[in-house]
Amino acid sequence: MNCFKILHRIKTGKEGFMVFYISLFLILWLAAGFAVGMKQVYVDQLFDKAVIERLEKEANDHGHADRMIKQRVLYIAAVTVSGFISVYYEMKTIPQRRNIRKIEKNIMKLNQAKKRRMKRK
Predict the structure, then answer these.
(1) Could you give the CA distance from residue 41 to residue 48 in angstroms, rounded to a whole number?
(2) Residue 78, domain member (yes or no)
(3) Are 80 and 34 in contact (CB under 8 A)?
């Protein structure tokens, strides 16, 4: 019964609104980071074998980097805590990804043209 009175005071007072908005902000912060982490790991295939090998070559000097590279859950947790910062950097890379897709399409067209030439011979 006493807990309900305390909760009622928090809800009705100015402190209650402040706590409510801070908690709402933190929930949104963590949800945004979690969504970006899940997208990077499972949609973008960040932990693909080729990517892991490249990251391991770059991280030869850092012993702690291996833990971060190999454990998906640890990576998702770190991105979750970073919140909207990770969302910002994810949005910042969109134009670069578009350019990469254009380059990949051009390479595919060149490969198809090469196959056609090989079939003619």
Answers:
(1) 9
(2) yes
(3) yes
Domain extent, residue 38, equals: 2-93
Burial degree of 78 (CB within 10 A; 0-12, 13-18, 19+): middle
* 74 neighbors 21 (Cβ within 8 angstroms): no
Write down the pLDDT at residue 5.
65
Considering Cα of 114, then 115, then 120, then 121, what sign does the dihedral take?
positive
- What whole-number distance in Å separates Cα of residue 7 and Cα of residue 9? 5
Cβ pair 59, 69 in contact under 8 A: yes
**Confidence band, pLDDT 50/70/90 cuts, at residue 61:** low
User: Does 121 fall in a domain?
Assistant: no
